[in-house]
Amino acid sequence: MALSVTDLRVYYQTLRGEVKALDGVTFSVADGEIMGLAGESGSGKSTLAKSLIRLDGRMRHAGGTVELDGRTLPIADDRAMDEFRFREVSLIPQYSMSALNPTRKIGKMVGELLAARGVPGGTAELERRLELVGLSKDVLGRYPIELSGGMKQRVVMVVSTLLNPSLLIADEVTSALDVSSQKAVATTLLGFRDHGLVTSMMVVTHDISLVYQIADTILVMYAGRLAEKAPAEVLVTAPRHPYTRQLVSALPEVGVRYEDRRLAGIPGNPPSLLNPPGGCRFRDRCPVAFEQCAEQPPFAEVAPGHLVACWKAE
Amino acid sequence: MRNEALHFALRNRKLVVGTVVVAVFLVAGVVGPMTIDHKPADYVGPAMAPPSGEFWFGTTTFGQDVFAQFLYGLRSTFLVGVLGGVLASVVGMVVGFVAGYRGGWVDELLTMVTNIVLVLPALVVLLIVNAYLGVRSVGVQALFIGLTSWPWAARAIRAQTFSLRSRDFVDLARLSGVRTPKIILREIAPNMSSYLFLTFILLFGSAILIAASLDFIGLGPTDSVSLGLMLNNAARWSALQLGMWWWFVPPGAGITAIVGALYVMNVGLDEVFNPKLREM
Amino acid sequence: MLKLDGVSKVYRVGAFGGRALTAVSGVGFEVGEGEVVSLIGESGSGKSTIGRMVLRLTQVSGGTITLDGRDISSIRDRKEYYRQVQGVFQDPFSCFNPIFRADRVFALIKEQYFPGVGAREWRGRVEDALESVRLDPGNVLGKYPHQLSGGQLQRMLIARAVLLDIRLLVADEIISMLDASTRIDVLNLLADLRARGLGILFVTHDLSLGNYVSDRTVVLRDGRIAEMGPTPLVFGDPRHPYTRSLLAAVPRLHTKWTDAPVDGTADGTAEERAEDLPCAYHEAAQGSRTRPGLAEVADGHFVACSGCAGAAPEEKKMKERA
């Protein structure tokens, strides 16, 4: 088991109180698994991704453990995490286009980064990997401004996987890209796993149809908790959580037209996470809610590899 | 809306404290001189006397009443600061807003003028003009200070306007048929109100300091006293070396307190006008 | 109703405007009453520039935009124009001045267009408009922008446009920043407005959204029209290789990229593969080239040259003639 997260709680400190952005999350990612992590804004998906790498100043580790390849990640200890970051667990940030310093040549920047991490600088491997993602080694001699958005994204992707991390987290890496570059970046991610450069991967996104293209499993989050995890095919065709069901049916697809089939959104808004209500958090928007929903449903396995947090999911 | 701002303003401690301090000095500067029956430059007491019941702030080397000088000095310092600060702010805002909002050749022209004034050695110009005209009143001093110290304010406001101009709510106001001057006044300026106030405070402070420098080189007003002039007199007659702290502490503390209080007010105003900060 | 004819936009860039950057070039299409036209393109395709030109936020460099036959730049009174044409933008948070209450956008409309309307009647009108976009007036009035969600703000902006009883709405990427569960509601809202006879210019980069809501589709590429026509034709039978490659790249549910039929070589983009396919523009009869650079391959379905070999000699001929 590459990654296993147990009852993880991460709270944000604000002046009005603590926002329970991640409130008791338990799941695991197998070796070689690409897990899509989907959710809307405020679902806690980005908090989850960030807390596996670095807690920023306002985030507090309120409980739970994270294990990677049998070793516990000291996520609350920024110093101790240095040993794992980049080597064991690595992140491709959301705005990696702006992560590159515009005044330095790409090759120089990468060299400095590797030196800072105490990695012997062998450019042969770097060039080989650039080639793998369809970039020539010339990009090392160029400035970031000379590269297109998709190219910069791929450079950052190569750099973050250079040490063959066990877990790679891609945080909304495609959301700022055009349709055609989206596809290229997504397929590159897939290639990393297939070439054995990373063991497993978490692809964080709000776009279910995109993550469906490359993920083995998809985990859906809602209001700081897990809603459903299933193999990608199952989650899209036979979701069991009412939230997932409504979410998937709200996606317009090429070919679906307003006149033929009027899709519906989900009425209402997610609850505030400042003082979230007890029980199932989707209760207020849920069409099938009943008395038992006042109690929080467990994230239970209803079929092999299919976990759902809903009393009615049997 | 207005009542609500007032409601939050009265509850904001920073704003209240800052306002009270500035108001106390203002009242002292306006009313104070009327309660004293001698001129600040009169030799009324013993020389070099420390503070006492008769002379609250002591006397100078020549036996002048420091307290009287302080009150009169406050008055002219406020006058120079307000007149110079307001004038520079107005010029800076007009130039900054127009250049930033209009862009294009208007911007290029105004930026060029701004840069020319910016690189003029302002103090030298003031020296020459002051010496040539020979007018030595607080008002004239303020006028020249105001006309030479606006460029950096204009540049800062231009940059802010430039970034706000491309925000969608400005486009939306245009789509509502609102005219340009109104957009600047009602959409852009309120968004940088604390910034504008800060600009004014800094210009106010720098006007006081420039005035003090002018006073020092003998180009200050000949007919009155200012806090800067007091400081420089104290320095000239070695008050520090002679241990006459009562001569330089009041004017120094006065300038610091006024500028500091204005700054605290600014932070408070920001909290009052920015609904996001208000909630925190 | 709205007609664009050979519209171009050239920006002057560099020191003293020394270089020219063509953002839009020779674009022509129409938006009728009760019709949704989606303008689809990737970043840099000029789609937003066209939206801004229609809204008169950016000046037109060449060609004309007409509303009911009147050149919009000749309409002196901007208010008269904005009473008929309004816009909604991508980022709902940036459309509201953060230091004022969100309902100030309505107050601005009242002040500029309906100064004579009484306060009570106006409040009634605002509430009606909010209800027409499915917002609960009690929930949104009197709030600050940061207290409302993106979906609520975006709907308020549509309500603002509705207050004016407009005829044309330019919707520029209005749902790309909304969450999946609410974006479909905003899309449905556009469809409802259409049913009321409103013309809508729907600018988007998302093909599935454009397909869902629009009657006609215009595909832009580098500031030029690549293909346009009735939506079912453009999506069902794309004739330009660029449209095809866009469609192939759209992530879909139920179909994976890897499942798609592979024609020609597995590597290379769809566009490269399409080079072997005949160019629809040059295949079409000369007489069907009713618009400059576009050939009508089916009823109302226009397509530009794919950049095939046939284009070169033709350009030569044009130059000789000139």
How do the SSEs of chain A run, as a string of H and E? EEEHEEHEHHHEHEHEEHHEE
CATH class wording of chain A = Alpha Beta
How many helices of chain B? The count is: 13
Task: Calculate the terminal CA-CA distance of chain B, rounded to whole Å.
Answer: 19 Å
The low-confidence parts of chain B are: none
Q: What's the shape of chain B?
A: globular
**CATH topology tier name of the domain at 73-239 and 256-279 in chain B:** MetI-like fold
- The radius of gyration of chain B is 22 Å
How many helical elements of chain A?
9
How far apart are the first and last residues' alpha carbons of chain A, in Å? Answer: 26 Å
Report what the structure shows.
The complex is a heterotrimer of chains A (314), B (280) and C (322). Chain A has helices at 45-51, 78-81, 106-116, 123-132, 149-160, 179-194, 208-214, 232-237, 242-249; strands spanning 3-14, 17-29, 34-38, 59-68, 71-72, 89-92, 167-171, 200-205, 217-222, 225-231, 300-303, 306-308. Chain A is an alpha/beta fold. In chain A, the strands form two sheets. In chain A, strands 6-7-8-3-9-10-12-11 form an eight-stranded mixed beta sheet, with helices on both faces. In chain A, strands 2-1-4-5 form a four-stranded antiparallel beta sheet, with helices on one face. In chain A, strand 11 and strand 12 (306-308) form a beta hairpin. In chain A, helix 5 (149-160) packs parallel to helix 6 and helix 6 (179-194) packs parallel to helix 7 (208-214). Chain A is globular. In chain A, 44% of the residues are buried. Chain B is mainly α and 280 residues long. Chain B is built from 13 helices and no strands. In chain B, helix 3 (66-102) runs parallel beside helix 6 and helix 3 runs parallel beside helix 12. Chain C has helices spanning 47-54, 78-82, 104-113, 119-132, 137-140, 150-163, 180-195, 207-213, 231-236, 241-249, 270-273, 280-283, 311-321; strands at 2-13, 19-31, 36-40, 62-67, 70-71, 85-88, 168-172, 199-204, 216-221, 224-230, 294-298, 301-304. In chain C, the strands form two sheets. An eight-stranded mixed beta sheet of chain C has the order 6-7-8-3-9-10-12-11, with helices on both faces. Chain C has a four-stranded antiparallel beta sheet with strand order 2-1-4-5, with helices on one face. At the A-C interface, helix 6, helix 7 and helix 9 of A face helix 7, helix 8, helix 9 and helix 10 of C.
